[in-house]
């Protein structure tokens, strides 16, 4: 199979997984929603590596925000979740799974804090979303770590392009 076609297919599948994990189990909260999309981001990063993990994470998550009506968060989500996929993918390539999910957790919490500082034009009110983002990040980190390490063993590394 053509390498470019394989990249497109696998990245599209992981993008769809991120999207579905984001919107199917979306528990609404006052400042957003809790979902399993972050867990899917770690799976995509482990299987696809940093570049394609970025694409699957950024596009799948931003489309999830669009579908659920959180349009104001689409661009921040694209950047934050894409960075999670990229950095985690770099760490996973070195078999540093714990460090990869911790880095993703930090990117999630810090990234959304910075985004909300810009959106709300102050440094104080976004502080209230840190615990919520922490819960979201922790759920995603645990789910992602468990599945990413198992899938990585099954596929003996990232999917070869």
Describe this structure in words.
With 161 residues, the chain is mostly helical. It has one domain: Arp2/3 complex 21 kDa subunit ARPC3. Helices cover 75% and strands 4% of the residues. It contains six helices and two strands. It has helices at residues 3-23, 37-48, 50-68, 74-93, 97-120, 130-154, and strands at residues 27-29, 32-34. It has a two-stranded antiparallel sheet with strand order 1-2. Helix 1 runs parallel beside helix 3 (50-68), helix 4 packs antiparallel against helix 5 and helix 5 (97-120) runs antiparallel to helix 6. The radius of gyration is 15 Å and the shape is globular. The mean pLDDT is 92. One of its GO terms (cellular component) is membrane. Keywords: Membrane, Transmembrane, Transmembrane helix. InterPro entries: ECF_substrate-spec-like. The chain crosses the membrane at residues 12-34, 41-64, 70-89, 101-124, 130-148.
List the strand order in the largest sheet: 1-2
Rg from alpha-carbon coordinates: 15 Å
By CATH reckoning, the class would read: Mainly Alpha
Low-pLDDT segments: none
- What CATH calls the topology is Arp2/3 complex 21 kDa subunit ARPC3
Shape: globular
Proportion of beta-strand residues:
under 5%
Quaternary state reads: single chain
Secondary structure blueprint with pairings:
Blueprint: H1 3-23, E1 27-29, E2 32-34, H2 37-48, H3 50-68, H4 74-93, H5 97-120, H6 130-154
Antiparallel strand pairs: 1-2
Helix pairs in contact: 1-2, 1-3, 2-3, 2-4, 2-6, 3-4, 4-5, 5-6
Keywords: Membrane, Transmembrane, Transmembrane helix
Pfam family, one: ECF-ribofla_trS
Transmembrane segments: 12-34, 41-64, 70-89, 101-124, 130-148
């Amino acid at each position: 199979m053509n390498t470019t076609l394989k990249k497109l297919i696998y990245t599209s599948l992981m993008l769809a997984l991120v999207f579905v994990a984001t919107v199917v189990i979306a528990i609404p909260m006052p400042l957003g929603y809790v979902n399993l999309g972050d867990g899917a981001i770690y799976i995509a990063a482990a299987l696809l590596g940093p570049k394609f993990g970025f694409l699957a994470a950024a596009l799948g998550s931003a489309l999830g925000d669009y579908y659920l009506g959180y349009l104001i968060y689409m661009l921040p989500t694209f950047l934050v979740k894409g960075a999670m996929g990229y950095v985690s993918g770099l760490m996973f390539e070195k078999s540093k799974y714990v460090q990869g999910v911790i880095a993703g957790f930090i990117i999630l919490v810090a990234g959304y804090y910075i985004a909300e500082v810009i959106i709300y034009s102050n440094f104080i009110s976004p502080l209230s979303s840190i615990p919520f983002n922490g819960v979201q990040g922790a759920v995603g980190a645990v789910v992602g770590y468990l599945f990413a390490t198992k899938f990585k063993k099954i596929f003996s590394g990232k999917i070869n392009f």
